[in-house]
Protein 1
Amino acid sequence: MSDVAAIVLAAGRGTRFGQDPKLLAHIAGKPLVRHVVEAAVMSVAHPVIVVTGHRASEIQTSLQGLPIEAVYNAFYADGLSTSLQTGFAALPANAKAGVVLLGDMPLIKTDLIDALVKNWRDLNEPAALVPTLKGQRGNPVVLSRELEWLIEGLSGDTGAGQALRGRADVLEWPTADPAVLQDIDTSDEIRKLQKL
C-alpha cells in the first residue's frame, strides 16, 4: 500500500462542453475520463479514488474493470472545491498525500504521475508540489495531508491553486510535458485532440 493516493476529480458538469457529458466523450476509442484514470491506476499512487457527481453511474460504468474506489460528491453542483473536499475525506488513514488529477486531462501519463510523487518525496514531502511549464502552474498536483484544513475551507468552483500561492511550503516542479496544461473544456478542443 502506497502512502500517496490518487484523487481523480470527475464530478463536474462540464457546462462549456455542451449537452453531451464531456468526460464520456471518446478519444482513441475510450471515454475521456478513462484515459487519466488508467494512467493513475498504473502509477505508484494507491488507491485511486474517483470522485463522481454529474452522471455518476455513467462515469462509473465507463471505468468498469479498473481497480478504483468511487466516491460520490452530493454537492458537485456547488463547484470543484466540494469534489476536492470529498476526495480528501476519502484518503486512507495511512496516506500522507494525494495526487489530485482532473478527469478532463487525457494526455496525463503514468510516468508524469510517478515523477511527481518521486520528486515530492525527494524534496522532503512539501505541503504541495505543483508542476510548471515555462513558469505556468499546471496539474496534477501533490497535496499533503497537512493541507486538509485549507481544503476544508475552500468554497465555490475553485481548486486549491489560489490558496497555495505565496506559501513557502508549496514547491514548483518544472517539466517540459505540455500535458500539465492541456485540459479539455469545449467540444472544439476534443475534436482537435481526436484528430491527433
Protein 2
Amino acid sequence: MNEQVSKALTDLLEKASNGIDSTVAFSHANLPEVIHQLLAWKMTKGIILSVVGLVLIAIAIFMPIWAKRAKSNGAIWTHHNGEKKYNINSTMYDFSRTIFPALILFFGAVIAIGGFSMWLKILLAPKLYLIEYAASLIK
C-alpha cells in the first residue's frame, strides 16, 4: 500500500515538473512576441489619447469663435430680449465663451500630455517603459 502511494506521488510530482518545464519553455519562446505586442498596443493607445487630447484642445479654441459668430448672425440662444431696455446675454452663450472652453482645454491638455508621455517613452526608452509597467503590475 505504501509503495502504491509513493509511486502515485512520484508520478504526480514528475508530471507537475514536466508541466512546469514545458510552460517555462513555452514562455521563453513567446516572450519577445508578447513584449512586442504589449509595446505596440500601449503605443497605439498613447497615440489615440494624444489625438483625442489635441481634438479637445482644438474644440476649446474654436468654441468661443463659433459662439461669437453665432451671436453676430443673430442666433436665438445667444441673447434674450425679454424687456426692451435690457439685452441680457444668455447663460449658455456666456458658458460657451468662457467656462466650457476652459474646462475642455484643461481636460484636453491632461489627456494629450498623458498620451504623449506614454508613446514618447515607448519610442525613446522601451526597456524603461517595460520596467515601469512591470513595477506598476507588482504594486
Protein 3
Amino acid sequence: MEAEGPRESSRPLRADAARNRARLVEVAKAKFSEEGAEVGMEAIARAAGVGIGTLYRHFPTRDKLIEAIYRTEMQGLLDSVPRLLETHTPVEALRAWLRQFVDHIATKQVMSPVLASMVCGTSELYAESGEQIKSAMALLVERAVAAGEIRLDIEPLDLLRALAGVAGISSAPGWEASAKRLVDILIAGMRI
C-alpha cells in the first residue's frame, strides 16, 4: 500500500495561512534568484520567518514550491490582461502587456536553473502556461484589430517569438531595454 501525501483541500486557506503561503513563494523566488537552485528549504523557511513545518504543509516537495513560484508569476501576467484592457486603449494594452512579457522572460531566465532542477520536469507546466499565454495574446490582438488600431498579417504568437528571440540571443545586461524597444517597433509596424 502506497503512503498518501498531504491532501490538497478545496477549502480556502485562513488569512494567516494564505499570507504565509504568499510570503513563502515571494521569499523562495528571491532566494532562488539571488543564490541559485542550491538553496535549501530550511533557508527559505527561515528567511520567510516561518517554521519548516509550515513550509512543508504548504509545499510538501521542492518541486511543488518551484511550481508555485512559476504559476504565481504566470498568473500575475495573465491577470493583468483584463486590467489593461479596462484602463488602456486596446493597442496600448497590447503594448503594456508585451512589455510585461519581457519582464516575465527575464524572471524565467533567472529561474531557469531552478526550474531545471525539478525532479518531475517542466514539460507539463510549460504546456499549460503556453496555452494560457496563447489565449491572452489572442484576446489582446483581437481587441486591437477590432478597434481598428492595428492590422495583423502574422500569427499573434510571432510577436512573442520575436521578444523571446531577443532574450535568447542576448543575455548581456540591458537586453530587457532592447526587447522593450522592440515592442514599440512591432506595434509601429502593425499600426493602420
Protein 4
Amino acid sequence: MNLQIVTPLSVIVNEEVQSLRAEDASGSFGILQGHADFLTSLTLSVVSWRTDTTERFCAVRGGVLTVRDGRSIAIATREAVAGDDLDTLDSTVLARFKADIEEERTEHVETTRLQLNAIRQLVSRLKPGHGTGSFR
C-alpha cells in the first residue's frame, strides 16, 4: 500500500507500507492491504507503519486519514514529525504539540474576550442619550 502523510507545507512521508496503526476518538486501529474504503479524524498521536524491513513512526497533530481501494492511505495533518525513535516522538514531539494546542486555546480565549469587550463598549455608546447624539 502507498502511504502519504502531508501537511500544508510539505509531504512528510511517501512510501510503500505493509501495515499501519493509527488512533482516532474511538481508539487505536490497524490497516492492512485490501482494507475497505475508510475515512476518520485522527487524534494527536503517533502513527506507526511497517515496511518490508523496518517499523517507522510519525507524530501527527490530529488530521484526516483516508483509505482508498485498499491500496492507498493518505493522512492530511496540520503538523507532523517523522522518525525512527518512538520514545522521542511520544515524549518530546507530542508534548510540544499539546503545549502548542494549549497556547492556541489560551490565545483564542483572550482574543474572544477582547472582541466581546470591544462590542460591549460599542453597544454602550450606541444607547440613547449617551454621547452627543440622540436616537429617538
